[in-house]
Every structure is written in structure tokens, then in C-alpha cells.
Amino acid sequence: MDSAPQAPSLPPEILTQLQQAAGPGGWTLDAHEIAPHLVEGRGLYHGTCALMVKPATTEAVAAIVRICARHRIPIVPQGGNTGLCGGGVPDGASVLLTTSRMKQLRGIDPATHTMTVEAGMVLADVQRVAAEHGLLFPLSLGAEGSCQIGGNLSTNAGGIAVLRYGNARDLVLGLEVVLPDGEILGSLKSLRKDNTGYDLKQLFIGAEGTLGIITAAVLKLFPLPRDQATGFVAVRDPQAAIELLGLARQRSGDAVTSFELINRLTLEYVLRHMPGTVDPLADPSAWYVLVEMSSSRADAGLTTALEDCLADAIERGLVTDAAIAQSEAQARAMWRLREEAPDAQKFEGGSIKHDVSVPVGKVPEFLARATNSVEAHLPGIRVTAFGHAGDGNIHYNLSQPKGADRDAYIARWAEFNRIVHDIVQDLGGSFSAEHGVGKLKIDELVHYKSPVELATMRAIKRALDPDNIMNPGKVIIP
Ligand SMILES: Cc1cc2nc3c(=O)[nH]c(=O)nc-3n(C[C@H](O)[C@H](O)[C@H](O)COP(=O)(O)OP(=O)(O)OC[C@H]3O[C@@H](n4cnc5c(N)ncnc54)[C@H](O)[C@@H]3O)c2cc1C
Whose CA is closest to atom 11 on ligand 1? Predict the structure, then answer.
């Protein structure tokens, strides 16, 4: 959406101060090294910065921020740069601060199921370290091989296990943050209970770096699953999927970890474009569910529970066919069908994306109303809907009509936003379920939040960041 980057600069004396604060190996002006940090993954935004800093400690982050605060220089925190709303892309003569050198494990306590990590630890490494101690860090998403825990917390990431464990917000006990004036808000507590006024950490979780820079966190861990059952299920329609969710939760002792809805077109894109993927079922169905149950008890009998549940659901007319994974490899193959959905769409031309949530029971109504509306608005538009139906969160993506001009189609993004998001609003939902606001959805925020909500958000932003140096131009314009 933005155009090509130019490299702006800072006054030499300020540049020197920042370089000294970042320390040896803690900064770069190398355009090749900086380039991948200036573009959002889908290429929607191209940014600029005057310097990229790579501090290795919280103290170095604080020193850098203090200099920026003194000289009112915008500073943009960035983790793995996998965010999908342009939130980590800097503009103008800003300082881009990557947390990629802050990867330390500060501690893990298997007895109390907690672990303290620095912001730059890659999510997959957090999961791996927990697993090495026989524990689970349940946050899991397609970008886990490169996104960082600081970015996950800053976007309040969701993913495939929210139904069971909650989203990132629910997985944090304590937080260390560098505030926009360079003060360190050190609150790395592992308290399960702390009713001492405002829960400050929750302000920074989901703030997308607009209120401060998260440098470390105390995370909640859980027992590792010892029994798992995964099924790929053809359902009658989305309403049947929601009824199946209730049934599966009851029949499994509430062991449903993931419940992903996928429409046929999404599956067709994956089968067409992703080598090695196979349809687990003989006949096509308009809608599918990928369901996973898990338990920390090895003898939980989840495969039997899933079989019984599906047999019952077939009898009730909710399910038309199903395959249950007989091995880890089969379960992985089923998950690939879901995980490859975002990439598979790229081969089908322009895609206008919506990451929405509605109350779980309203998912069928949302899908029916939105699809009727967008198809009436642009005949030939192709709806690829998939996502975390168990959380009421659908990635409602619209591929361009076959043969349409990609750029002309993408230019209509705001038009389709209005159609889809108005329906979401009418159903009491949210225009951004898990990817955040960043730059991409600022107009939507202004459009859909109430005046009181907007005023409260602006008051918080102004109180913490009066000079608007912390990731300006993202989420909320003060
Ligand atoms: C293939 C794919 C699948 C995905 N699936 C999901 C999914 O299922 N669920 C989901 O929620 N998201 C998903 N995402 C989006 C993305 O991975 C998440 O938003 C992730 O949490 C971003 O982490 P990151 O480290 O890459 O953050 P970045 O992209 O680097 O930054 C994201 C935002 O957080 C801010 N930020 C980063 N680090 C810090 C910090 N330390 N302190 C303060 N602010 C900071 C940035 O300024 C920016 O505003 C997916 C992305 C891809 C590419």
C-alpha cells in the first residue's frame, strides 16, 4: 500500500549516542541487513528507518529509549516481523529496535509450571525448552518458527489452542517493559494472584508496541499432552460444526484443544498448490472441521472418545464423513491442510483478508450473511473461509474473481472491509480477532470503536507516551 523506501538519517551526534547505547554488535546501518525488517510479510507495507538497533539487554533497550525520548525520535519495536498488519514496520527517520538478540532463558521452574524468557526468544524455542522439561507452552501458530515471544505478547497472539488454554494474554504471569521515557517497569512476578490495583502488564499485552517495549515475561506452562486424537471431519454445514463442537467437548471431558473450520475452496487451493497434500476423505464436502483432543493422561482414551463422538454426530446428521489419524504422521498431514491455507491462496491472485471474530454460536450466521453480501457485490469473488471456529474466529478471505486484475481488485480492500466488518459489528463481533490493528486497521478502529473507547485509548496513550515516540502511527492516533 505504501511506496518504495528511502534511507533517512539522524543528526550525527544523536546517531553516535544511540550506537554507543546499543553497544558493539548492537546496531547496523547496513541497508542489506535492514531491508527485510522494513517490509511486512505480505508486501503491503514498505518502511524506512535511520538506524536499526539490536540491543542484547534490557538496560541497553532502556538506554536507547531514553535517548529517543530526549530527542523525540520515533522508535519501533520489532520481533520476528511476522505480524500481518504492518505494526512492526517503521517510517521516516525512526529507530527500529529488533529484539532478536534478547533470547535468554532467565529461568524455568517445572514445579510451579512457570518460565521466564526474554522477548526475543522464538516461539518454537519457548515450546522446545518447555518440552525439554516435560512441559507445554501451548501458544502455537503457523509462524512459530520465526515469531518471537515479545511479538506474540504485543499482538496478544491467538493460534490453534486458544479454545483450551486461552490466548497470549492468558499465558502471562509477569512482564518486564521499557516505558516510552526509558524507565524499566520490572514486574517479572510469577504470582497467580495479585489484586493490588491495576493489572499493568495487561496494558502492554496487545498494545503492539505503542505503549512500551516488552523485554521479558514470566509464562505459564502446562503438563505435556500424553494422549491425542486428531480427526478430519466433513460436516453438513457451519451450524453442524458448532453443534459438533459442543458434543465433542462434552464427550471428551472437555479435552478439545483445537477446532478449525475449513471450507471446500480453501482445501482445494491447498491440494492444488501444496505438493504432497492429500484429501483424507473420498468425497468432497462444502465444509470440514479439523478437531484435536489432548490430555496429559496417557490413558485418557481420546481416540475412542473421538470415534464415539463422531458416530453420534453422524447419526444426528451433523457429520457426513470423517477420518481419524492413526499415527503422528497422519495427524501432521491433516494439520498441513489447515496450516498451508494462507500460503496456498497466494497462487490464486489477490486476496482481501479479514480476521474477524463473532460469538461462537453466530459463526454460521456470519458466514451466510457475509458470503451472500460479497458474492452479490462482486460476482465471481471466491470465498476462502477457515480458522479457529472454536473461538468464533474466522479468517474470511476473498480471492479475486478468476482473470480479474490483481491491483484493481486489491484497491477495493476498504470496500469489502466495510461489507464484512459491518456484519461482524452487527453480530457483536470484532474486526480484528488475533492479528491486531497495526497500520492496516487503524481506520476500522476509528470506525467501529465507540467514542468512549477511543477517548480512553487515547488517554492511556497520551499518559504513557506524551510525545508519541513509541511506534507512532500504529493502532491509535493520539
Ligand atoms: C503463516 C502465519 C501464520 C500466523 N498465524 C497466526 C495465528 O494463528 N494467530 C495469531 O495471533 N497470529 C498469527 N500470525 C501473525 C503473527 O505471527 C503474530 O502476530 C505474531 O504474534 C507476531 O510476532 P512477531 O514476533 O513476528 O512480531 P512482529 O511482527 O515483529 O511485531 C508485531 C507487533 O508487535 C510489536 N512488537 C514486537 N515485539 C515487541 C516487543 N518486544 N515489545 C513491544 N512491541 C513489540 C511490533 O511493533 C508490532 O506492532 C501468523 C503469521 C503468519 C505469517
Answer: 157
Cβ neighbourhood burial of 273 (10 Å; 0-12, 13-18, 19+): middle
Distance between CA atoms of residues 62 and 59, nearest Å: 5
Cβ(67)–Cβ(35) below 8 Å: no
Beta-strand runs (E) in 110-209: 114-118, 135-136, 172-178, 184-187
Instruction: Report the C-alpha gap between 238 and 287 in whole angstroms.
Output: 7
* DSSP E strand boundaries for 237-342: 256-263, 287-295, 319-324
Task: Give helix 363-377 / helix 238-251 axis angle, nearest 10°.
Answer: 160
* φ, ψ for residue 477, nearest 5 deg: -90, 115
3-state DSSP assignment of residue 11:
coil
Residues with CB under 6 A from ligand 1: 41, 76-84, 87-88, 99, 119, 141-143, 147-148, 150-152, 154-155, 157-159, 208-209, 213-214, 342, 434-435, 438, 471, 474
Q: What angle do CA 478, 154, 53 make, to 5 degrees?
A: 85
The pTM of the full predicted model, rounded to 2 decimals, is 0.94
Cell readout for 84 is 500481518
276 Rama sector, left if φ>0, alpha if ψ -120 to 50, beta otherwise: left
Q: What is the pLDDT of residue 6?
A: 57
C-alpha closest to that of 52 among 5, 93, 87? 93
- Residue type, position 186, single letter: G
Which stretches of 282-389 are assigned E, i.e. beta strand?
Answer: 287-295, 319-324, 351-352, 355-357, 382-388
Phi, psi of 149 (to 5 degrees): -60, -35
Mean pLDDT by 10 residues, the chain (478 residues): 66 97 96 95 90 98 98 98 95 97 97 97 98 97 96 96 95 98 94 93 98 98 97 98 97 95 98 97 98 96 96 98 97 96 94 96 98 98 96 97 96 96 98 95 96 98 98 95
Could you give the 3-state DSSP secondary structure of residue 93? coil
pLDDT, position 187: 86
CB 344 within 8 A of CB 389: no
